[in-house]
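Please go through the protein record below and explain what the tokens say about the fold. Record follows.
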Amino acid sequence: MANPAHSGASVHSGASVQSAEPGPGTVGKALEVLDAVAAHSNGIRFAELQAQSRYPKATLYRLVQTLVREGMVRHDPDTGLYALGMRLVRLAHVAWRQSSLGPIARPHLDQLSAEVGQTVHLAQLDHAQVLYVDKRNAAQPVQMYSEAGKVGPAYCTGVGKVMLAHVPTSDLDGLVSQQSFHRFTPNTLTDAPALLAELAQIRADGVGFDREEHEPGIICIAVPVLSRRGRLLGAMSVTGRADSMTEQDLAAYLPALRAAATRITEDTEAWRFPDAQGPA
């Protein structure tokens, strides 16, 4: 399951979930197990899964065995570790081609990276969180949390804030209510009013910044990727270290960043592209 400290998703106890809404069906339970397995890049043992799970041992065992049988999870009998299966990898590749900005944006991401020489991100909004779709490292890579395929918080990242600022107004309150507002650094916005005020400014300017809000020492400038009709598709950012550049230095990359976003917009017009935010 996604780490709430990084994902920004709201956290509830098992009791509150059961009293507030119906529990998940079998598919929902299986997806929770997949999330738990995916969160451990080196694999996870059943005992560890059980320690994290809210389900009885017998229920969890049946779910795991079904996932293994269907190829969604693989089991190494020598180590006892469970990891994501190849069927899931195949499905992920199909999803990448059909629903991700990645294939369309790849050449523009490459061009932007070559122009600015800094770390470049491409992201989409996955429910109320940021999904990092692609990334290009700087010539001298900067150590940071982001990585293609990872999920991060929206309320304290540059790409997250510019995407929240450009969702339909009718969706915004619901998305903001799902943010955890965990304080990562002294600069993190930790309440909805502060976030909404910044989102209004971002919407007016068409650009947003991460001022060491998610990770100490990491700053970025971000712009949305919109369809020609103004529908949110995703976001792009240029990232650097606060000890080697300023916000003003990042602002110098804005023309190149906007040009790259515009080229992606033009390319997406050639085919039907799905909404970036999905259900709230």
In short: The chain has twelve helices and nine strands.
